[in-house]
Amino acid sequence: MKIILLGAPGSGKGTLAKKISRDFDIPQISTGDLFRAIVKESSPLANKVKEIMASGGLVPDEITIEMVKDRIAKPDCKKGFILDGFPRTVKQGEALATFSNIDTVILVELANEVIIDRLSSRRTCPNCGEIYSIEDNPEEICKKCNTPLIQRDDDKPDTIRHRLEVYDKNTSPLINFYSDRLFKVSSAGSPEETYSPVKAFLTKLEEKGE
Ligand code: ADP
Ligand code: ZN
Predict the structure, then answer these.
(1) Measured in angstroms, how far is the CA atom of residue 34 from the centroid of ligand 2?
(2) Ligand 1: which of 29, 31, 49 to mutate, judged by most atoms within 8 Å of the beta carbon?
(3) Which of 19, 55, 89, 96 has the least C-beta neighbours within 10 A?
(4) Closest ligand, as measured to the CA of 163
């Protein structure tokens, strides 16, 4: 199954992707994670990407498309994959269509005010990538690997607002682009409540013989 997760930053795509990846045994490909790995190196590309990410803007399409194309060509993607954070522009969607056939696009919907609240209280483990909310983890220590949690630079209020604007302008047109294969889900409830209808839908899709 080849799946795209579409939704604003902070709508809960990453959390949903991890559950789908576990249950349907397909890799989660997060372009944000791939870029965060690139940024840790020291190269001219790393510096450029770092600056763009810190501002909440988008990395140029050419760089992003190449990176995803390479990743999807790896053997673990043969059975399928979940794209989390890609495509983010219609140009990326058009490019993707030339090298892969997407079965379904899951649109994760959440009101902007809730997104701003959730992202402001989001903390990430710099070691293993686990995501927490400060409400659930006031000690701010990773429960999996004991590393002190950090707040991503782009999870600060001004950058969040800019990321939401970028989503409305550049990414939301993809909702129309994929109108023939869209499955909508609200992430206003708990992660389990969000996942449940998605799991039912994907199970059916899988039975149909994807
Ligand atoms: P979120 O979904 O929480 O905004 P991500 O981890 O998906 O965060 O992405 C972080 C940053 O990485 C984005 O703000 C952007 O700068 C860059 N990025 C990720 N995916 C893409 C993409 N498909 N195209 C361009 N830039 C991207
Ligand atoms: Zn950890």
Answers:
(1) 17
(2) 31
(3) 55
(4) 1
Could you read off the pLDDT of 27-82 as tens digits, one per residue? 999 999 999 999 988 888 899 999 999 888 999 999 999 999 999 999 999 999 99
- Rounded alpha-carbon distances, angstroms, from residue 92 to 59, 62, 68, 108, 171: 11, 9, 10, 19, 10
Q: Which atom of ligand 1 is nearest to the CA of 155?
A: 3
Query: The whole model's pTM is what?
Result: 0.90
- Answer yes or no: is the C-beta of 12 below 6 A from any ligand 1 atom: no
The one-letter amino acid at 167: Y
- pLDDT tens for each residue of 163-191: 999 999 999 999 999 999 999 999 999 99
Q: Which domains are seen in the chain, by residue range?
A: 2-110+173-209 (3.40.50.300)
Give burial (CB, 10 Å; 0-12/13-18/19+) of 194.
buried
